[in-house]
Each structure stands twice: as C-alpha cells, then as structure tokens.
Amino acid sequence: MNLRLRKGTTGKVVRVMIRDGAGGGRTGLAHDAAGAGASWLGEGSRTPVDLELCPPGSGFTPGGFREVDARAMPGLYELHLPDEVLAGPGNESVLALRFAGLPPTYLHLDLVGYDPYDSERLGLSCLAQEARHACLSSAFRDVVPAIVDEIRSDGRS
C-alpha cells in the first residue's frame, strides 16, 4: 500500500488491509496476536526501528492497532503512526506489519512538502495570480495552453 502524506504530519491514523496467504482479508488480529510486530525504516537509514503495537486509547495512541469490523470489512485495520515515522528527514518511510503465519504487510509512505489532501489550493492559491498562472502554464505546457490563455483573458484566477 502506498500513501502520500505531508512530511511532519502528526497524529495520523491509517487504514491497512491485511491479507491471508490466499489473498483474502485476515480477521481476528490484535496487537498481542502471535508473532505480532511492526518496524519502520526511514530514507537514508540502514537500520529498521521496531514499533510496539498496542491497543488504541480513546484518542491518538502511537502504535495503536485495531480491527475495524471483521464482518463488514474483513481484513481492514487501523494503525496509529508514531509521529517519528512521518518526520523525515528523508522523503519516504516504509513500515512492515508482521503476524505469525502471514506474509508481511508493507506500507510505503511518500513524505512530501505540501498537503496532497488540500482540496482547495494544494498550495497554489498562496501564489500571486501571475505566479500561479506561470506555475500552471509550466506544469501543463503541452496539455492545456488554450485553457490557461482563456482564464487569463477572462480575468479569472
């Protein structure tokens, strides 16, 4: 599973699908299940860091792990990512969840300098109109030059 998150995000809970050896959703796992463990590795590091799984509290709990709903969503779990996993200094982290008798589940985290889930601006509305147009024109030079020109001529931003 791949996720793109803003570097330095805190208090992040992710949902992870854990499959059995046949590809179906594995139910009934808990933080203290046989062979339960997790480790993460940040970009530039050669040594994985162990992550202790625990039951989540009423709020964010680093290492918190719980099954969402075995009947309605078999194999779906929530994992509370410790803030260090998303802190950098590199641009990626990889996390592995392990349980006895199951293949490991890997979570690849791309750490970026913007909020990819900012539906309003993705950082671009913070630019002045001309700078925003130059940025978009450059990014979409071969795709939508007529649209950018039309926006400019109509005076829209």
Note the topology:
Blueprint: E1 2-6, E2 13-17, E3 37-42, E4 49-51, E5 65-69, E6 73-80, E7 92-98, E8 105-112, H1 129-139, H2 145-154
Parallel strand pairs: 1-8
Antiparallel strand pairs: 2-6, 3-4, 3-7, 5-6, 7-8
How would you sum up this structure, described in words?
The model has no long low-confidence stretch (mean pLDDT 86). Strand 3 and strand 4 form a beta hairpin. The chain has helices at residues 129-139, 145-154; strands at residues 2-6, 13-17, 37-42, 49-51, 65-69, 73-80, 92-98, 105-112. The protein is an alpha+beta fold and 157 residues long. It starts with a strand and ends with a helix. The longest helix is centred in the last third of the chain and has 11 residues, at 129-139. The strands form two sheets. It has a five-stranded mixed beta sheet with strand order 1-8-7-3-4, with no helix packed on it. The chain folds into two domains: 2-112, Sandwich (Immunoglobulin-like), CATH 2.60.40; 124-154, no CATH class. The protein contains two helices and eight strands.
Please give a quick description of this structure.
The chain is α+β, with helices and mostly antiparallel strands and 157 residues long.
Say what the CATH topology of the largest domain is: Immunoglobulin-like
Strand order of the largest sheet: 1-8-7-3-4
State the secondary-structure class: alpha+beta
- The H-and-E topology, N to C, reads as EEEEEEEEHH
Per CATH, the architecture of the largest domain is Sandwich
Shape estimate = elongated
Kindly estimate the percentage of residues that lie in beta strands according to DSSP.
25-35%
Q: Give the N-terminus to C-terminus distance in angstroms.
A: 36 Å
What's the total number of strands?
A: 8
Whole-number mean pLDDT = 86
Helix content: 10-25%
Output the radius of gyration: 21 Å
Unreliably modeled segments: none
Question: Largest sheet, if any?
Answer: 5 strands, mixed
Total helical segments: 2
Highest CATH level, the class of the largest domain: Mainly Beta
